[in-house]
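#struct-pred

JT: dropping the chains for the assembly here, can someone run the whole complex?
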Amino acid sequence: MSSSNPLRDPADRRLPRIAGPSGLVIFGVTGDLSRKKLMPAVYDLANRGLLPPGFSLVGFARREWQHEDFAAEVHDAVKEHARTPFREEVWQQLIQGMRFVQGTFDDDDAFERLRGTIEELDKAQGTGGNFAFYLSVPPRSFPVVIQQLKKHGLADQTGGSWRRAVIEKPFGHDLKSAEELNKVVHEVFGSDQVFRIDHYLGKETVQNILALRFANTMFEPIWNRSFVDHVQITMAEDIGIGGRAGYYDGIGAARDVIQNHLLQLMALTAMEEPASFDADALAAEKTKVLGAVRLPRDLGRDTVRGQYAAGWQGGEKAVGYLEEDGIDAKSKTDTYAAIKLEVDNRRWAGVPFYLRTGKRLGRRVTEIAVVFQRAPHSPFDHTATEELGKNAIVIRVQPDEGVTVRFGSKVPGTSMEIRDVSMDFAYGESFTESSPEAYERLILDVLLGDSNLFPRTEEVELSWQILDPIEQYWDKNGRPAQYASGTWGPVEADEMLERDGRSWRRP
Amino acid sequence: MKIDLTDTTASKINKALVQGRRAIGTPAVGMVLTLVIVTDEENAYDALKAANDASHEHPSRTLVVIKRVSRSPRDRTQSRLDAEVRVGADAGTGETVVLRLHGEVVHHAQSVVLPLLLPDAPVVVWWPVNAPLDPANDPLGALAQRRVTDTYAAEQPVRELSARADTYTPGDTDLSWTRITPWRSMLAAALDQVTCEVKAVEVEGEEFNPSCELLAMWLADRLDVPVRRSLSGGPGLTAVRMATNTGQIVLDRADGSLATLSIQGQPDRAVALKRRETAELIAEELRRLDPDDTYASALRFGVERLNPSLPVPEPEVAPKGEEAAVEAAAEASAPEAQAEAPVNDAAENTAKKAAAK
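RK: done, full complex below.
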């Protein structure tokens, strides 16, 4: 399409990548994710001039709404949550392509109406039959929506147009269910037409891991077992489960976070250099490294799970997990999980990767810390280096995105005394204060058909292969350890690292 | 915080910058470039405001060089440098130094600026008004990787465009070019939507707005078809009409904010095309610091090769009141009733004539 367009020129870097004629259909449009993230992201994209003229947004939900009610809802969501300022002319452009289809997922009439709406939009807005279906729906509704799309011919790509499916985590709750889900989806949509959203991969800092490692010379030579002592990947939340009891109980922290976000971050940190920055090459390297992950021999010794107990979190009193509304007082669901993994390849043999995540921890933070070995020999005596820790490179994913390098430096004064200092690069300081939201990037990529930042079927299945044995072990053995809300997790997790002669960073 | 220095030197200013940073508790600096604004007292405030807004996207050290006019022979022989150092909340996300040059030092501004540049970081010089005719050979321009001028602010914009083409050096750029990025992007998107061959183009906009000429030259350069520049009352650019073998493509913006894209055989669509603030233009300009080859190519196409003699295949809805201006600019030579096919040849003839001048 664009290859024959004389106005397009790769050397013309000012011209942004604009998606071709297309529309987005959101199922479950009344949900939180849709209101807080998707609608604002669509507006922000339009405001940055990245959506094609005639771009259409179709909402599908049970609520009895007219097109105007839907538009009013989007308007409010955009005003409240959009990153860029509200501009009337951008809104006028968007509102022309907004439609609402009322119905439930098993309602054939509603899907016929949806097809009619899409055909009408092709005529009125010139969307050219190109539509992405965003399934912002509970996992149990996936199969029925996918089947309905198939039944009503909504997934058929005719005459050069495309139809894509966008799905959110969880991608199943173990390997078996993930395979089933993949089967259901791939029966209807080709593998290159399915986009799995892991919004972490849309974050600038995560993409920067690749830039940091492969565009520089100073990091890659030491990024291996000869210099790295261990790696810690942390994703901590300060909130509890909120109103998500129904979803969360029985799933737990490891399935909710480690399976997708943390293993993806680990893959990006540990993988070899891809041959190019295209989707196939990236997926090949990520699959390779995930395939090389080895579980600890003694799962009881090298994994820890916990549940938050009542306590004080940041000055507020918090109830324990078992006292939350809708949670069974005997629930064994983990709200904290820490596991130790190794990567069996030449680069990483013997270097442990510690992954931890939890709710109601000290503060909200996600980071990757690569901790280096101590210098093999120190000309300074013991007292001089008493306060010197191990060197570290910390990639801060959120909040306050950036990179910190920790190393020893002499304390000013007459005696030789060496102490850790931080050298800091903050994204907000060197680049835009207003870097795009992950969802903006990911929605644009879906419309462009660019699947670099989306995990593939194999990656999802490999991740479950890593996590399944741990979950099975936990099912059979013991109970989650309790930790007070507002702390950095159960003491068992600290002991787990102590046994290896290491300790968790305080992020 | 603000530190005022009177009758000072670059090294004292450097000291004040370090002192200011210490005082607000952020000794580390993550600034990515030095932006030098060369201006007169009159335009300094607006330019600095735009730069501070842009610094939210590109934290920078901003040096404002204000050349004061000396009003007596005695003033001219005396030389003085005053500076105002701003760090923290007063300076966007970076640091700002306003330099006021009096007397002889006005001719040696680069000696003041050079010691104040950030180590290693790229340097951008921006002249909001009165840009030198050959920016790359200007003593301040020579310090920079990127030299930003604005033909829109010139007395005779179109003539200045030709001058810029003559002295173009990689790294030169023009805010009038930056202004049309959304238009270019939308026109490219329009051609994504239909497979067609463009036969002729008309670019319509207000007089003395070099953005119209630049857009027209870009289209002519990329499409290799005759492009006509016609006049309207503005604001800014008002319309681009492309005649193609499958009908007309028109992007029409009458009110300076919301445009309509009409493609024959497709429904009309509203497109947001707001005229942008200077801060946004500067922010876009600072996003890439490598030479803009597309700009160079469009600029070198030459204003004189616009409006070739042949009549553009008549659009169905011909706007009124612009014919005269176009006619005056066009060289009347080729017979009126010519078919579409030889249009390209004629354009080439015109081009050769232009080149021979």
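JT: nice. The longest helix of chain A spans residues 457-476. The two ends of chain A are 48 Å apart (CA to CA).
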